[in-house]
Amino acid sequence: MCQHRYMSNAAPNALSDPATDATALPLIGAEAEPCCPPLTERPLTAEEAVRTAAMFKALGDPVRLRLFSLVASHEGGEACVCDISDVGVSQPTVSHHLKKLKDAGLLTSERRGTWVYYRVAPTVVAAMGKMLGQHAV
Amino acid sequence: MCQHRYMSNAAPNALSDPATDATALPLIGAEAEPCCPPLTERPLTAEEAVRTAAMFKALGDPVRLRLFSLVASHEGGEACVCDISDVGVSQPTVSHHLKKLKDAGLLTSERRGTWVYYRVAPTVVAAMGKMLGQHAV
DNA sequence: TATCTATGTTGACACATGTCGAAGTGGGGG
DNA sequence: CCCCCACTTCGACATGTGTCAACATAGATA
């Protein structure tokens, strides 16, 4: 599941061994607690709103949302850019959107050899879900 | 909690009696099932992404996110525009943003007398939460 | 009816954003 | 060493978006 016509062996996705999975989750790194209480608890402050809106904004574009969904639902929880081709935009545009998702803290990237792999940042996404009133774990 | 200097009695928020509350929840009306499975289940189609991105986009602005949080956390689950004043933008801008939230299906509005009351559309917001991986109810 | 208040709408403007082609970077293979 | 491939960055462009002042509308009160 990666239509590369280069380097036919050395299955790229097979590199995601358990050890890699465990250590590949530093998430956003700088910020362990992404943001803010549920939106129903109290009004957000201006600063909280700015930080949080950036995350929602990142998912507020159809192409980015598809990219995010594509990575999130991909086998092994990660996908390389080569797995993405039919999103309807050029490849530089895909790269541009992936960077935005990464900057928003929703995705992390890791280069392994020739390919770059993206995976979702679970805690950040979970925090967004909680803000929308999904109090249950 | 509504600094109107007109019509000193007839407490506006007191109008939210149980009967009104029960009937004030037709939600988005047209669309009972807002959208889409969890983002981790399968890649979104283009059409799904467009519909869903519009909802996330609505929350992707700091002012709108504050407005939404303000309505969601307000007493009685509803707030009139007069309850909102310190968001840092002019009143027409507030109205503009409330309309956007309404168009996205995240808020509903109802006019009762002089004032217009906004409340959140619970099913739509819950659906967004579920898409972010909060599978539990 | 006239007038006041609470909201929504319009028009205009500056700015942000999505998009692409072209050029740049980084790593593997021959 | 050079080429090829995967991916990113750059420059430019059209379009979208947030913002406001000014105007329009809807009820309520007198």
Taking pLDDT < 50 over at least 5 consecutive residues as the criterion, the unreliable ranges of chain A are 3-32
CATH architecture of the domain at 42-131 in chain A: Orthogonal Bundle
CATH topology of the domain at 42-131 in chain A: Arc Repressor Mutant, subunit A
Helix content of chain A: 25-40%
Radius of gyration of chain A: 16 Å
Distance between the termini of chain A: 32 Å
SS elements, strand count of chain A: 3
Supply the CATH superfamily name of the domain at 42-131 in chain A.
Answer: Winged helix-like DNA-binding domain superfamily/Winged helix DNA-binding domain
Mean pLDDT level of chain A = 78
> CATH first level of the domain at 42-131 in chain A: which class?
Mainly Alpha
> Main sheet of chain A?
3 strands, antiparallel
- Strand proportion of chain A: 5-15%
